[in-house]
Specification:
It contains 26 helices and 26 strands. With 667 residues, it is α/β, with parallel strands linked by helices. It folds into 3 domains: 141 residues, Glycogen Phosphorylase B (Rossmann fold); 131 residues; 215 residues, Rossmann fold. The relative contact order is 0.08.
Length: 667
């Protein structure tokens, strides 16, 4: 049963996403200014309205709502928080009196499991650059070795609450200069000051030959990792400085001061416990906040909230420029537009390049529609170019049957199925040995989830796999679309389904070979048919309708040219032999019949491959909430069948057969 509280803030009352979070936390909101009837009062932080409420009902039980320390992509109600700090004792930034967070940090016996989660959570935030607000990705760094002085918005409640004032900032800068003579000092302005909405405590008048004011958009983690020393008053960046390995000099009394992790200029007599960095993180990020997943619309743990926030941040990061999209078939465009914010669909390459150059935008082309000259046109015009393709956890149904994709990939280097030139996926795989443990653990958990649910790229549920002879090696040979770009670009000497069967039989004359024709070929929509008799001369069985995941599980080995089924077999621990150069070949996980590309040749683990292929490379969009989302959510949606195509596309798919010879109507 929800606890009823009276509130007085318009944001709490009228913001539907915020109300969802609060209701999920167990509270039922009523508009205040009426007789209280012993209800608790809910206030937002210590804004002026909150102070008026507290002064009117000083003896009431108060519940304070505040943004969690990991909030959203952008500030404001238009970007609702993924977590709230809900405090029935005080408020975390008020040092004059205790708060629920202070009690947690002072008294909690943090167990080993919580500390492991904390260590991985810190690594996750640092690796991806997540902070309270997340408008800027990692990747822009200043020359390392500077002293970082962190400014704040003048009049922010956390300053007075942290027993500081405007003079604290002047003393902070003076101390930074005195303690670091001749050192380069960067004063970091607050994002709200950078946008012109607020004012800070420093201006150009505070600059000198060693001191500069920095308002360049930069990820906080990049800024902290380049610093040699950090000075702050009560900014959350002081907390993040501790997480980044610094011991900041603190001039106020924020929630993270007084625990032995900072050099504090003020005493904190109530805080007499020494904490580790992981204990501080566990209290502030795992125990204290209430986390909420807006895509699933339910309460969640920190890990789920941070992963969902990352998905939304990546979507924002990718939409920094105007986008001119080429080669997208008409039926795909509404779905592509969900992945590309503000996409403008154009007909010709010259139009796309000209408009992108004029507006400072980029060109996105469906990979198979890219002409041989588009890359040079973009390079000459200094216009970014990205190729788009379906992701590897795609849909419940075929693209040839007009089923929209729940995942797409964007590649500014090449495209994953073309080994002739490098791709972004190839780059990510090559860098995967450098991933932190938290990323590999996530990939392992995702792989386990895929195996548990039986999800694949298209999720065409057929009959159970037939029983195969005991005592013989079962080799699965998946057919492919022979005019598909992955065959045209990535196949070697063997380039047809018939040749693939011949190679498998020649290598394994006594094996039990199972041939699985491609669904698009069976439907008569694409090239690659092998006559039944020709196939049976080389294989022992043709299976057309079996569930592909069950078929893989029933097999010992997969022989393929470039099929994604080879990757899905790797996920399930099967041996895979490649007669081409699919993206997963050449990394020490497959038996490669063709020479390994020199760009590859690096041995990676299966979960490193999974992280690059299913987590870092694609983007995902939830068809239920219409939000950017995680691969974990898409696996759940695919497993439950919640990614089906809209009614209009079902109608078009039924009509498609009448226009097989007139493909242009679908463009």
């Amino acid at each position: 049963m929800r606890k009823r509280i009276s509130v007085f803030s318009a944001g709490l009352v009228f913001s539907r996403p915020l109300r969802r979070v609060i209701r999920a936390a167990g509270y039922s909101l009523s508009i205040g200014w009426f007789r209280q009837h012993n209800r608790d009062i809910g206030v937002w932080g210590r804004i002026p309205m909150s102070w008026r409420v507290l002064s009117r009902w000083p003896l009431s039980r108060v519940v304070t709502f505040e943004d969690a320390f990991l909030r959203s992509v952008l500030p404001g109600l238009g970007s609702p928080p993924c977590g709230l700090n809900i405090d029935d004792v005080g408020v975390h930034f008020e040092a004059r009196s205790p708060s629920r967070l202070e009690e947690i940090l002072q008294t909690t016996d943090f167990d080993a499991n919580l500390l492991v989660r904390a260590d991985r959570g810190r690594a996750f935030l640092r690796h991806y650059g997540l902070s309270k607000y997340n408008a800027v990705p990692r990747g822009v760094r200043s020359e390392a070795g500077y002293v970082l002085v962190i400014d704040q918005v003048a009049g922010d409640a956390s300053i007075a609450g942290g027993l500081a004032d405007a003079g604290s900032f002047a003393r902070m800068l003076a101390a930074a200069r005195a303690e670091n003579p001749e050192e380069r000092i960067i004063i970091r302005t607050h994002p709200a000051v950078q946008s012109g909405d607020k004012r800070g405590h420093f201006s150009e008048a505070d600059e000198d030959e060693n001191t500069v004011l920095s308002s360049t958009p930069i990820n906080p983690w990049d800024l902290l990792e380049g610093a040699s020393k950090v000075y702050c008053v009560s900014s959350q960046m002081g907390f993040e400085a501790i997480l980044a390995g610094h011991r900041p000099v603190v001039f106020g009394v924020p929630f993270y001061a007084g625990w032995g992790l900072s050099d504090d200029l003020q005493e904190t007599p109530r805080r007499n416990r020494k904490l580790s960095v992981d204990e501080l993180f566990a209290g502030a990020m795992l125990v204290y906040p209430f986390w909420y997943d807006h895509a699933r619309r339910r309460a969640c743990e920190f890990e789920d909230a941070s992963q969902q926030l990352l998905a939304q941040a990546r979507h924002h990061w990718g939409g920094a420029w105007p986008v001119y999209a080429l080669g997208m078939r008409m039926w795909k465009r509404w779905n592509v537009a969900r992945f590309l914010r503000g996409a403008i669909f154009v007909k010709t390459e010259s139009e796309a390049v000209a408009k992108a150059r004029k507006s400072g935008g980029k060109v996105v082309v469906w990979a198979s529609a890219e002409s041989s000259g588009l890359a040079d046109m973009c390079k000459t015009a200094n216009v970014p170019l990205q190729r788009m393709e379906d992701g590897f956890l795609r849909s419940t149904g075929l693209g040839a049957e007009l089923t929209p994709a729940a995942s797409l990939v964007l590649d500014d280097r090449g495209i994953y199925y073309d080994p002739v030139k490098p791709s972004q996926l190839e780059f990510l795989i090559s860098k995967s040995p450098d991933l932190p443990t938290c990323a590999i653990d996530r990939a392992a958990a995702l792989r386990a989830k895929i195996l548990e649910t039986g999800v694949s790229k298209y999720n065409l549920k057929g009959a159970e796999a037939p029983e195969f002879p005991v005592g013989r090696r079962i080799i699965l040979v998946p057919g492919q679309v022979e005019d598909d770009a992955s065959i045209q670009r990535g196949a070697g000497i063997v380039r047809t389904n018939l040749e693939l069967l011949q190679a498998a039989r020649a290598a394994h004359p006594k094996a039990y070979i199972v041939y699985k024709p491609h669904p698009d070929v069976l439907a008569g929509l694409r090239e690659g048919a092998v006559t039944r008799q020709a196939a049976l001369n080389l294989c022992d069985r043709i299976v057309e309708t079996a569930d592909v995941t069950k078929l893989i599980e029933a097999s010992d080995e997969v022989w393929t040219m470039t099929s994604l089924l080879g990757f899905e077999a790797l996920l399930r621990g099967k041996q895979v032999t490649c007669l081409g150069q699919p993206f997963y070949a050449g990394w020490g996980l497959t038996k490669d019949r063709d020479p390994i590309l020199e760009r590859r040749g690096l041995n990676v683990s299966l979960d490193q491959l999974v992280h690059a292929t299913l987590i870092d490379y694609p983007s995902y969009h939830d068809p239920v909430s219409n939000l950017p989302c995680t691969p974990e959510l898409i696996v759940d949606r695919l497993a439950s069948g919640l990614t089906r195509k809209p009614i209009r596309l079902r109608v078009l798919a039924k009509l498609q057969g009448s226009f097989v010879g007139h493909a242009s109507i679908w463009r």
